[in-house]
Amino acid sequence: MRSVAREVLAKCRVVAGIGIVENAYDQTAKIQAVAADELEEREKELLILAKEWMPRLPFKTADILLLDQIGKNISGSGMDTNVVGRKFNDHVAADNEWPKIKRIVVRDLTDETHGNATGIGMAEFCRTRVVEKANVKITRINCLTGGHPTAAMLPLDYASDKEILDAAFPTIGLTEPPQAKLMWVRNTLEVAEAECSVAYLNEARERPDLTILRQPRPLAFDASGNLPDHV
Fold it and tell me: 88 Cβ partners below 8 Å, 6+ apart?
């Protein structure tokens, strides 16, 4: 990209560029005008800033991550791979990549994605309603065009959240469910608030950057074995 950009700058009449950096709340946080001869260096600085400001899960590891929804309006890949730690591999974080999530559960698609379930292939489990809402043709076209066909593959699906967790917990290793690290967020764009299992409580109490909003409570399954649609 640098070599091409240098040619463009050398041969075209580029006066300046405008750099726009968003924060973790999907808001424009910085607008920077940059002279043409400073574009390459300033772009590096702004990229570092963008990485620092991007949304992050509150903890670096999890046995299970519950995502209420994925969709193209959340991320081009359905779920932000930078947030879930699967930018380079579908089902495991790279050695130097964080967070490290063992199992991802997708509970629904956004209305705005119109059945495009791109990214579902990065999850290990999902609610059956996700499969029923997915437009297979659109999803496959999107993933094939993006050179990421595995992102369209369907995970194991179950009718209820309880059935999913009953299936998922035995796959995380020797950790028993009461000690498992579980995080639950609405989507990868809205991670300012997260429901977390008691396994994180001691660390959360010691973290000045986190605020505990409520005390531990049982998961609120309804009569059908489902959690509320949104955390």
Answer: 94, 97
Report residue 7's pLDDT band, with 50, 70 and 90 as the boundaries: confident
- Of the candidates 66, 72, 185, the one whose C-alpha atom is nearest the C-alpha of residue 119 is 72
Kindly give, in sequence order, each residue whose CB lies less than 8 Å from that of residue 192, ignoring residues fewer than 6 positions away: 24, 25, 55
pTM: 0.89
- Cβ-contact 60, 200 below 8 angstroms: no
Q: Cα-flanking dihedrals φ and ψ of residue 29, to 5°?
A: -110, -20
Q: CA nearest 113: which of 86, 144, 73?
A: 73
From CA 141, how far away is CA 219, in angstroms rounded? 37
Tens of pLDDT, residue by residue over 46-94, are 988 888 888 899 999 999 999 999 999 999 999 999 999 999 999 999 9
